[in-house]
């Protein structure tokens, strides 16, 4: 649906040149939720601004379906931008307008009659679960409620694509989860393609189908969330999936088996079955699994048992198609 071909964006500053996006090629498919993840300064926001042509790439091409947007005239570009809705970390609501009027605003700009715009805005507020706040002002809302209004506003013009730039970064974990759930429903029920920019792996885990990992302007790694989560190949991927502070045990002193939970199963039955299957007491050195919608994500470290037990454990994990690695602790 959207194709980036060798997109580069350079900024000239006083006597200096910053390459914010460096030769990025990506294909975003219709109907998917695509994540772009990276640490601060990786170039994510600039890349997104290149996708909606708010920033014109220094070189490369951006295609929407078969249209080369770099060659599009003003009218074509306007039509393209209408197909793209956007939400931000800071919500960007108009403080002087009520919730309903915030959602009406893009419709009025697009020339819709006031009565019709209010009706449509009302339906959208219903859809995002905040119809009871229609007459409130943004300052009277919580962060999660503000983001719901921003989502309703972004959807008002029936976009085909929704760009979410760190949309949950200012929200607490529970509110984050509910906003991500809402985005997932919008994707599923309305068929809106969603592009999510984030620095948090848990956001990618919860809603994305595929992900690109960015560092220093380039895409270091790209793939399904499952494959990247299971075995990140790039340095940045490893840091994001297995951040140091999230290591279950900072420095285990015994050899261990690292078991990866990738969301296919819940950790509790796995653990119970493992113990039954191996017919031995297993010593858990640490775990940081997280239950997301009934599935476990994360990892667990188990002290390496004797060889016979280890084989039984590995057989069970192979049978369950779960990933693991044996780690020898360097005692030098
Ligand atoms: N208008 C600009 N002029 C000069 N340099 C810029 C401009 N916009 C971005 N940059 C630089 O480009 C690089 C990438 O910035 P960008 O904001 O795209 O990264 P990011 O991954 O979105 O980070 P963050 O999450 O912190 O916003 C940074 O080094 C930034 O300083």
TrEMBL record:
- Presence of keyword Transport: yes
Q: Which GO terms describe its cellular component?
A: plasma membrane
Q: Which Pfam families match?
A: ABC_tran, NIL
Q: Which GO terms describe its biological process?
A: amino acid transport
Transmembrane ranges, per UniProt, are none
Q: Which GO terms describe its molecular function?
A: ATP binding; ATP hydrolysis activity
- Which residue ranges does the record assign to the ABC transporter domain? 2-241
Recorded superkingdom:
Bacteria
What keywords tag this UniProt record?
Amino-acid transport, ATP-binding, Cell membrane, Membrane, Nucleotide-binding, Translocase, Transport
Q: Which family does it belong to?
A: Belongs to the ABC transporter superfamily.
Q: What is this protein's name?
A: ATP-binding cassette domain-containing protein
Organism (species): Roseburia zhanii
């Amino acid at each position: 649906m959207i194709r980036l071909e060798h997109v580069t964006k350079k900024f000239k500053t006083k006597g200096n040149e910053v390459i914010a996006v460096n030769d990025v090629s990506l294909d975003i498919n219709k109907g998917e939720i695509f994540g772009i993840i990276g640490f601060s300064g990786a170039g994510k926001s600039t890349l997104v601004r290149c996708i909606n042509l708010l920033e014109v790439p220094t070189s490369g091409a951006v295609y929407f379906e078969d249209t080369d947007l770099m060659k599009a005239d003003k009218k074509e570009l306007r039509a393209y931008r209408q197909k793209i809705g956007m939400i931000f970390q800071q919500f960007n609501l108009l403080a002087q307008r009520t919730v309903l009027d915030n959602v009406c605003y893009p419709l009025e700009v697009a020339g819709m009659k006031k009565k019709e715009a209010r009706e449509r805005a009302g339906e959208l507020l219903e859809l995002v679960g905040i119809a009871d706040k229609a007459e409130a002002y943004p300052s009277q809302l919580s962060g999660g409620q503000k983001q719901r209004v921003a989502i309703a506003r972004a959807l008002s013009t029936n976009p085909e694509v929704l760009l979410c730039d760190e949309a949950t970064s200012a929200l607490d974990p529970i509110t984050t989860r509910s906003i991500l759930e809402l985005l997932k429903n919008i994707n599923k029920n309305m068929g809106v393609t969603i592009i999510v920019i984030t620095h948090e792996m848990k956001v990618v885990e919860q809603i994305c189908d595929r992900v690109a990992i960015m560092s220093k302007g380039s895409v270091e790694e790209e793939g399904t969330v499952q494959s990247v989560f299971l075995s990140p190949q790039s340095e940045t991927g490893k840091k994001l999936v297995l951040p140091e502070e999230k290591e279950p045990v900072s420095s285990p002193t015994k050899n261990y088996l690292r078991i990866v939970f990738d969301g296919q199963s819940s950790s509790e039955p796995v653990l119970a079955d493992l113990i039954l299957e191996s017919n031995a007491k297993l010593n858990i050195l640490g775990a940081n699994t997280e239950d997301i919608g009934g599935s476990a994500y994360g990892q667990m470290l188990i002290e390496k048992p004797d060889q016979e037990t280890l084989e039984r454990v590995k057989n069970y994990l192979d049978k369950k198609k779960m990933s693991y690695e044996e780690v020898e602790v360097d005692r030098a």
